Amino acid sequence: MRSFGLIGYPLSHSFSKGFFTTKFEREGIDARYENYPLPSIDAFPDLLKAEPALEGINVTIPYKESVIQYLDEVSPAVSEIGACNCIKKVDGRLIGYNTDVLGFEKSFCKKWQPSQQPALVLGTGGASKAVQWVLKQLRVPFTVISRQSDPSRGILSYNDLSREQQAAALCWINCTPLGMVPNTETLPPLDYTVLTSAHYLYDLVYNPPLTAFLAQGRTRGALTENGQDMLEIQALAGWAIWTAQP
Ligand SMILES: NC(=O)c1ccc[n+]([C@@H]2O[C@H](COP(=O)([O-])OP(=O)(O)OC[C@H]3O[C@@H](n4cnc5c(N)ncnc54)[C@H](OP(=O)(O)O)[C@@H]3O)[C@@H](O)[C@H]2O)c1
CATH class for domain 2-97? Predict the structure, then answer.
């Protein structure tokens, strides 16, 4: 039986175990997928010793950055973003990938034709870095918005952003946890009255499916997408990496 799993802490709301267990059952794949909640990343080497059959590992909060020190090789995306969420073991060597990048790119482009229209990227955490990496690959100009401005890195605060800048940015991407259960009434502090049917609102949050952020767009005829599609694409991208022939 092949063995896969997820590390992070805590893991009570994890999507991956259910997704892969259903996939293995449905497709008759002789494999298991287990959650490995690690109170500290220092416990990762001991997990690898205790579970030598583990050949694919997903990594979630809070270890996407700190796991990199244990890897033998990383993809260009992991190297630039500084975050890894998928590991493949090959001949005892650990190779790190970032499938958030693959998931976001495929999902984002389904409804939106990337162009020179500027985008707003809300938040500066790990998911935001993956989104920024994809936008750079797609040559989409963007401005990063944070609670704290950082002029040296071109980051604006929500208060710095004019109404005109918001109207001109046709694509808004929420990379913050605002709107996620249980805080479903929260949303990034923007001027939603500028939205039109020419705008595209993408929310990385997937629970609830219609966040307060997306609801603001939908009310004004904007195109919307939540993070569920990205989540499933990145999981399948991980599976493709684990099962690819060398
Ligand atoms: N759909 C998917 O496949 C997928 C994949 C990855 C992540 N996600 C989701 O994306 C969201 C962000 O994940 P992450 O890993 O990037 O988290 P993170 O590293 O904690 O970063 C979140 C960022 O959001 C901003 N933020 C946090 N609290 C805020 C608040 N109260 N008000 C305004 N901004 C706030 C912060 O940026 P500033 O300090 O700069 O304001 C922070 O850096 C989560 O909801 C996660 O579930 C979804």
Answer: alpha beta
- Whose C-alpha lies nearest to ligand 1, atom 3? 231
**Considering the domain 101-229 in this protein, what is its CATH number?**
3.40.50.720
What pTM was computed for the model?
A: 0.92
| Catalytically annotated residues | 64
| 2-97 and 101-229 agree in CATH topology | yes
31: CA distance to ligand 1 center in Å?
32
For the CA of 189, the nearest atom of ligand 1: 33
Q: Is the CB of 96 under 6 A from ligand 1?
A: no
9 lines ligand 1 (CB under 6 A): no
246 residues of the chain, pLDDT tens digit each: 999 999 999 997 789 999 999 999 999 999 999 999 999 999 999 999 999 999 999 999 899 999 999 999 999 999 999 999 999 999 999 999 999 999 999 999 999 988 888 999 999 988 999 999 999 999 999 999 999 999 999 999 999 999 999 999 999 999 999 999 999 999 999 999 999 999 999 999 999 999 999 999 999 999 999 999 999 999 999 999 999 976
Closest CA to 173 of 199, 138, 208, 136: 199
